[in-house]
Amino acid sequence: MSGNGVRRAHSGPDTVPDLLDLGIYLLVGSLAGVMAGLLGVGGGLVIVPALIWVFHGNGFDASLIVHLAVGTSLATIIVTSISSIKAHHRRGAVHWELVAQLAPGIVLGAWLGAALADALPTLWLQRVFAGFVILVGLQMLSGAHAEAHRPLPARTGMFLAGGGIGTVSAIVGIGGGSLTVPFLNWCSVHMRNAVATSAACGLPIAVAGTLGFVVAGWGDAGLPAASTGFVYWPAFACISIASFLFAPLGAGLAHSLPLPVLKRVFAALLLLVGAKMLIG
Which pick of 34, 77, 240, 252 has the fewest CB atoms within 10 Å? Predict the structure, then answer.
């Protein structure tokens, strides 16, 4: 059930996406895949703003657009995280025992995040996302990182950490890397293993968050055709395919391009996007 009763009042578009829309979705997925492979930045930071823009242009119900963008972004992360997990697992870099400790909290947190997002009016959900984007941009621009100086918490602490990561990630439609990696690194997990373990944690975040957004938007009369709850399948299909194919390209470019410069440019772009969304 939707937390904002006004969102039931409209009838969603019945038209299928045209070739231009599909092309934009493929472009968005390609960019998200390259950025993920190149900078290790979660695709949701690219996908959510782009989908909001496209959905506005398509005349989707304005009170549903941000929820639909976040839910669709989470669904795409299911596909991309599977690919990432395989690559990291082959290198033996995933600490599966840590994934097992974080996963229960992550799943419950992602469900809670979906419910909280559903309760927010679309403008406030957009502002929450914008604030998160700005924080990530500032962190990337400053180059600050967590200092590894303490052991991992006990099982209860890991459950609570997973809950916080899952909640925030589901609200803003990301795989949680910008939260999980600093947490694990702060707890003395080597950066290589923190990144790999974070990738594995992205799958339960994406699955639980997607299910939460499907349930939250189920039966909403304002949704466009080809949607299930707050997941829009044409965008999901194109973005998933393109990001899956282009992530290896980004990983390859990481060895030949000036990453510090690229990170600063991308961080500045995030700040601009976040500022525009915050006031828009």
Answer: 252
**pLDDT for the residue numbered 33:** 82
Which range, of 21-25, 221-225, 262-266, averages the lowest pLDDT? 262-266
Closest CA to 38 of 198, 191, 194, 260: 260
User: Residue 134: inside a domain, yes or no?
Assistant: yes
Name the residue with higher pLDDT: 140 or 115: 115
Q: Please give the residue range of the domain that contains residue 53.
A: 17-279
The secondary structure of 29-57 as a DSSP string is: HHHHHHHHHHH---THHHHHHHHHHHHHH
- The CA distance from 144 to 46, in Å, is 21
* pTM across the whole model: 0.87
Instruction: Let me know if residue 8 belongs to a domain.
Output: no
264 exposure class (CB count in 10 Å sphere: 0-12, 13-18, 19+): middle
